[in-house]
Amino acid sequence: MRQLRGQERVITANRQTSWAFADAFVAEDDALRWARDRARDAGLPSVSPGTGAALRLLAATADAKAVAEIGTGTGVSGIYLLEGMRPDGVLTTVDLEPERQQFAKQAFRAAGFAGNRARFIPGRALDVLPRLADGGYDLVFCDGDRLESLDYLAESLRLLRPGGLVCFEGVFADGRTVDSAAQPAEVLRLRELLRTVRESQELLPTLLPVGDGLLCAVRRG
């Protein structure tokens, strides 16, 4: 391994600390903390504050009125998305477990969002997404079954308007995506997703090092 020069050595030594600082940069309110506690009680992962803040920023930048979310969880990511969306925007959120969506409804109310700001659809994402309108969404956030990620991408390209955004949570897979050791099928699928998004002529991609990795891409017009 080549010897690091001075500046490279400093960047390498401080990178983990800097990432941790960036991920904790945005403070969370009581509604978000409540939703996180419910997720922790249920043994569910939830997006990091840095990932949530990135989603909020992207929704605001897109002036999003219609957002689709795969994986409601207990509402952590949904609160961030709603905070970034237009005041008249509607979040359509899909989850296999209706019980989780009940927690999300409570969290959204606690965060001050009216009941008509979110549409909750229980069911398997690949059964629900085909029923949603072509080109009707400004942003699609995917935080579901990693083995279905390529199918989510195909549905997202149909759902998004030109200039809309698709985002995938957890693409680092706790470091396994770049680990050369043998990996399970879900990690291999994430690698395929990353290659597909990067090489697509329909998408303008980036990979954000927040949380467990947030893959984002704009659908070209």
UniProtKB/TrEMBL annotation:
Q: Which GO terms describe its biological process?
A: methylation
**CDD domains in the record, alphabetically?**
AdoMet_MTases (cd02440)
| Keyword match Methyltransferase | yes
Fetch the InterPro entries from UniProt. Answer: Cation-dep_OMT, SAM-dependent_MTases_sf, SAM_O-MeTrfase
What Gene Ontology molecular function terms does this protein carry? O-methyltransferase activity; S-adenosylmethionine-dependent methyltransferase activity
Q: Which UniProt keywords apply?
A: Methyltransferase, S-adenosyl-L-methionine, Transferase
Identify this protein by name.
Methyltransferase
Organism of derivation:
Streptomyces lavendofoliae
